[in-house]
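User: Here's a structure from my thesis project, written as structure tokens. My advisor, Dr. K., wants to see whether a designed sequence matches the one we expressed. Can you design one independently, without my sequence as a hint?
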């Protein structure tokens, strides 16, 4: 019997016409959902051969969301319909599409200045608001995981799991931000004519919504922390990572190397698994979510985001004016004061740098490495005497709390694991291994050089504040 090839699904575009210029550099936005990517039958065909995709890209290149890897990378599930053959569109291919389409953009097609400023205001407001929520969620999860005889003593592992899970869910979701509702949205059968194009348009528009950018870049990026991951790996290497009420037992250098390898492997494996599990969860909930009312954030949520985002940040700054003395305020206030600064810096670094090298996201890499260096410096200062007489460790209670805010707030939000594992999942295998090993190798080396020099020479003392 003659084999009749199945109609290929149109691949996904990467950017749309609703976001300001430059946002397309964010890899959170550039990571394209696999569920609507093109299936192949024996070989890979050109990613720009589909007319629907080219038409969407011509309209979308001015959107300004290229470079945000939370939005650019494909969802973790490459084949949600469980077809026999699936097509994986890599992050490098997304960058190639954006680069060629950017060359066709005309200045008169760009967003008017007023609309661009309004969208930027809404986007930064959501980023600030969700950075506060993500930081509080990370602190809460770390506190829950700090119990006696915990099997895993790295505090940030559960936060990295949660943030990666949420990002995987958001990347794969096709219902929460959909313009249309109904049974066709959740259908897993062969799509009817034109249905895939509608889904492609929906997924492209979703990536430019300020609310979606706030959730993927702001909340997930702040919930996870690459710098805390590097700090925990260093403390394991230095045999100083005992959990709550646990006794540190001396061990040889060889065992310390085994311990730090275990921390690295567990953190990466757990985060990658959580990313895939979040995508599977989105697929499983699609029939339920497709029945929910349409979420129209443009009319009422975006204006409220300006109040909630900037207003909440201002209130926290006022709280920090009076030096916090009790434990809870000392641990939290300065942390959430510095949190939005780290998120916004990571956001703009991604916009400017992620598209420079398609196979190596420089924006995310720079954020993670810079944050790892800062957390190593702050941790060393917090645990050493800053007074000539050596009587006050970390500059006293107030200095200790400020350094804690820099580590957990600024560095915690400047660095991200959710975006990092999404990029690892989306890059071609060789590039992914190079990028992953370089990130861990350089980040851990900086922490060892900066903080290790204090640990193994002067020695570290208990901080003046409760951490």
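Assistant: Designed independently from the structure alone:
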């Amino acid at each position: 019997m003659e084999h009749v090839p199945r109609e290929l699904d149109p691949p996904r575009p990467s950017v749309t016409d609703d976001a300001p210029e430059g946002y397309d550099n964010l890899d959170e936005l550039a990571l394209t959902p696999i569920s609507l990517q093109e299936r192949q039958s024996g070989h890979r065909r050109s990613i720009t051969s589909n007319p629907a995709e080219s038409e969407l890209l011509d309209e979308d290149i001015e959107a300004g969301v290229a470079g945000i890897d939370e939005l650019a990378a494909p969802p973790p599930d490459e084949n949600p319909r469980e077809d026999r053959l699936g097509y994986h569109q890599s992050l490098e291919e997304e960058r190639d599409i954006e680069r060629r389409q950017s060359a066709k953009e005309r200045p008169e097609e760009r967003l008017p200045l007023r609309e661009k400023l309004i969208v930027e205001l809404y986007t930064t407001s959501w980023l600030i608001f969700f950075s506060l929520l993500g930081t509080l969620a990370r602190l809460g999860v770390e506190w829950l995981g700090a119990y006696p005889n915990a099997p895993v003593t790295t505090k940030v592992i559960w936060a990295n799991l949660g943030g990666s899970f949420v990002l995987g869910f958001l990347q794969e979701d096709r219902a929460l931000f959909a313009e249309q509702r109904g049974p066709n949205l959740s259908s897993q059968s062969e799509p009817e004519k034109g249905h895939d194009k509608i889904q492609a348009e929906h997924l492209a528009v979703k990536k430019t919504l300020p609310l979606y950018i706030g959730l993927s870049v702001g909340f997930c990026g702040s919930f996870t922390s690459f710098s805390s991951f590097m700090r925990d790996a260093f403390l394991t290497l230095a045999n100083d990572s005992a959990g709550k009420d646990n006794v540190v037992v001396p061990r040889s250098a060889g065992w310390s190397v085994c311990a730090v390898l275990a921390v690295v492997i567990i953190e990466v494996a757990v985060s990658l698994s959580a990313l895939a599990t979040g995508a599977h969860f989105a697929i499983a909930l699609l029939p339920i979510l497709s029945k929910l009312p349409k979420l129209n954030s443009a009319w009422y949520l975006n204006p409220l985001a300006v109040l909630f985002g900037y207003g909440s940040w201002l209130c926290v700054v006022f709280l920090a004016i009076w030096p916090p003395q009790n434990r809870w305020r000392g641990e939290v206030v300065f942390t959430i004061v510095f949190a939005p600064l780290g998120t916004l810096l990571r956001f703009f670094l991604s916009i400017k740098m992620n598209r420079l090298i398609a196979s190596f996201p420089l924006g995310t890499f720079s954020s993670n490495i810079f944050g790892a260096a800062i957390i190593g410096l702050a941790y060393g200062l917090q645990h050493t005497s800053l007074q000539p007489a050596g009587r006050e460790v970390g500059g006293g209670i107030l200095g200790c709390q400020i350094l804690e805010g820099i580590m957990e707030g600024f560095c915690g939000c400047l660095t991200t694991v959710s975006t990092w594992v999404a990029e690892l999942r989306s890059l071609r295998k060789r590039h992914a291994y190079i990028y992953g090993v370089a990130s861990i190798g350089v980040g851990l080396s900086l922490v060892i050089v900066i903080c290790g020099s204090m640990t193994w020479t002067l020695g570290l003392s208990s901080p003046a504040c409760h951490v």
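When you compare it with your expressed construct, this may help: Confidence is low (pLDDT under 50) at residues 1-17, 34-62.
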